Amino acid sequence: MTIAVIKDVLAGKFAVGDTVTVRGWVRTRRDSKAGISFINIHDGTCFDAVQAVAPNTLSNYQNEVVRLTTGCSVVVTGTVAESAGQGQAFELQATDVEVIGWVEDPDTYPMAPKRHSMEYLREFAHLRPRTNITGAVTRVRHCLAQAVHRFFHERGFYWISTPIITTSDAEGAGELFRVSTLDLMNLPRTENGQVDFKEDFFGKEAFLTVSGQLNVETYACALSNVYTFGPTFRAENSNTSRHLAEFWMIEPEVAFADLNDMAALAEDMLKYVFRAVLEERADDMAFFAERIDKEAISRLQHVIDNDFVHMDYTDAVEILQKCGKTFNYPVSWGTDLQSEHERYLAEEHVGAPVILKNYPRDIKAFYMRQNDDGKTVAAMDVLAPGIGEIIGGSAREERLDLLDQRLEEMNLPKEEYSWYRDLRRYGTVPHAGFGLGFERLVAYVTGVQNIRDVIPFPRSPKNAEF
Amino acid sequence: MTIAVIKDVLAGKFAVGDTVTVRGWVRTRRDSKAGISFINIHDGTCFDAVQAVAPNTLSNYQNEVVRLTTGCSVVVTGTVAESAGQGQAFELQATDVEVIGWVEDPDTYPMAPKRHSMEYLREFAHLRPRTNITGAVTRVRHCLAQAVHRFFHERGFYWISTPIITTSDAEGAGELFRVSTLDLMNLPRTENGQVDFKEDFFGKEAFLTVSGQLNVETYACALSNVYTFGPTFRAENSNTSRHLAEFWMIEPEVAFADLNDMAALAEDMLKYVFRAVLEERADDMAFFAERIDKEAISRLQHVIDNDFVHMDYTDAVEILQKCGKTFNYPVSWGTDLQSEHERYLAEEHVGAPVILKNYPRDIKAFYMRQNDDGKTVAAMDVLAPGIGEIIGGSAREERLDLLDQRLEEMNLPKEEYSWYRDLRRYGTVPHAGFGLGFERLVAYVTGVQNIRDVIPFPRSPKNAEF
């Protein structure tokens, strides 16, 4: 018995006349008046299902084949034939249809073969992988993750698994999830009535990480080129299509690098992973372009084909102020740009990805490297047409005196950052990095509007089902 | 200016006489009586440091070069020359030595160039990446992670990021970390005085995952071949060299597969990643074989060269009972094997990796597939010489009635598993998978004894520093 994955059958890896066995789930079944059933079977190996043509001469035709419904699992053996129908080049002339698993009460099967809303599918996160859209998202997500790892590996970067549980807060201000094993009905107390975290699992108050950056800097300052790719967390009460409480981040960090090096790395990386997805997942991308967002493919091609435009924050503010467009939020030097401003710059003013650089010091994190102008820091955002900010990065302040000055100005306790300061006391080097939210990347690539639909099991306020 | 990574210089990618610039950290400096300094510089791109030969004719020779100490960061330009010394084929005749960062008080620099204990290095987890051993561990860890992703990708598996925060407990009995944003000083209460988790971020009590298996099964039952590679957690109060509170797991899951398919997949995967590390990280592996464990290389080669031996649990018990060896724990059918038993089987009885199969039902998890004998389940452990259990897996119970029977016997609430049961109600398929603790794999490959030394920032009871 030659077991075949459907991808290989459809790609013509078997000769017409070969007998193969495919295993998967029924997408649809249609019966002809002539006593033939056409069963579409998917196994997840590619977007398309294969059609198995089952004649009524099969011994279980009346008892089983004509009772097959969407979602049933089957093992079908047949001979490969050229397909008379449209769409596919090959089909199977079934000689045996074995039913492995029925669908209990097909009338109430939640994944019935019709168009479901994304909200509905989210309620069935355990069954939505069987749909066209979630299957396609999953394959594209996988392709992007692999391409990210490959991109960095080829450039000599090492993957560093920074800690998930931490006792520090990288941004100095995040909204944090506490991690604890304390018995809530019997909390230990200190003498002055506070919760005694000395009794907790880690001996102090611990949280889920919001970023691996500070940790991964320790590896960049020893191994030069490193990156993280792992989950991060925000306990923000944001019920938007762009926020998740749990999401995956990619954070490269490079020794002896400056902001322009990071801008180039970000551009190279995005182009690399977009090329990978257009080459490797043409089937799924065609589906997204047809059904979700007609620009899904052209948008990526546009990014690949164009140089990213570098622009100073200060120049951007001037452009926005002079452009004659009315924004909901006014623009002035010293304030953060809003999504409407970012999208205007990338989509209307430039028409290509824009890398905004050198932001006002006072709106940025303590670790960003101060520029000589005394007002700005070497920070950048990559703004992509159609989504806005997709990457944020900076050169890190490698000069101990200037780092300490910022810690003091921002009332951050130096003792808490002693290990981070050590990197500046012992062989400090200029270094820089950036962060990319992986789900925002997947949403951008697929055109799927809500970030909850591009991660297998989304976590958001009041929702950690499954 | 041609920037060169040290790996390329030592590998002869530049011609003798080429001028290149390397950037990194000083490992050692030695001055000759003739007024020449030999500076060993590492940049993390390979195990070895490159030697830069700095003559006293350099303008900053007296002021700076002879003051260089371990850990200082430098940018050195020089011409590539054949090395007269032993070990390396190439060195740099320095024409410029720029000091980027000094070491504050070299006498107290924690990473002074001498042999430190692993315990000592753990206290300086932010600086230990600069040591030979942590550098080598990091590169090998990276190589193994990449090889794992590549292995699965080449075989058509999709990477699935199963959730980190969950409201269910995969094993039905784990020791869990609670994830919460409740104010501990002001806990909301239900009418009967219990903590009201409806007020918590996720609207119910939430935990860190102990395994992605149950979640990833939902994707296997749609996309056929999938795997997880992500962090998992155990709130066990175990201070051993084999336990971490936070560690990374690899969990493939395959539709239409049985236990023997998983045994073959586990064998293929281990051999694949071992080959990768021997080929790609020969430099680091040579170090481990020389300094940490003289069998580091031969052990991997032995696994690669030998077929894994399959053995039934029942037969193993008989072998252990009859072998004439005295164990600390007695062996009897129906009890779990101890490490001493596993190691005897793999190291002494067989002398190769052993796959033990078909364990007593009553010592295994509810989801494992029941064998026809009514006593055992289709579970396996892969036992490797020198470490014992490295992989655990099973076929999953795909028959709803038998799954329900186990849930009832083990007093697990059916409602909690309704989504898991749905996979058996709608087109169920035989499927199987296994789990591999990534840090145990890295420890096995490197010979490093304590698992805390093969993860960047180990988390264990009373320890979540950095």
Automatic annotation (TrEMBL), chains A, B:
Gene Ontology molecular function: any one: asparagine-tRNA ligase activity
Residue intervals of the Aminoacyl-transfer RNA synthetases class-II family profile domain: 144-456
Keyword field: Aminoacyl-tRNA synthetase, ATP-binding, Cytoplasm, Ligase, Nucleotide-binding, Protein biosynthesis
Classification via Pfam families: tRNA-synt_2, tRNA_anti-codon
Enzyme Commission number(s) from the entry: 6.1.1.22
Key word Transcription present: no
CDD domains: AsxRS_core, EcAsnRS_like_N
Keyword Magnesium (UniProt): no
UniProt superkingdom: Bacteria
Subcellular location: Cytoplasm
Gene Ontology, cellular component aspect: cytoplasm
Reactions that this protein is recorded to catalyse: tRNA(Asn) + L-asparagine + ATP = L-asparaginyl-tRNA(Asn) + AMP + diphosphate + H(+)
Gene Ontology BP annotations: asparaginyl-tRNA aminoacylation
HAMAP family: Asn_tRNA_synth (MF_00534)
Recorded family membership: Belongs to the class-II aminoacyl-tRNA synthetase family.
Subunit comment: Homodimer.
Protein name as annotated: Asparagine--tRNA ligase
Taxon lineage: Bacteria, Pseudomonadati, Pseudomonadota, Gammaproteobacteria, Alteromonadales
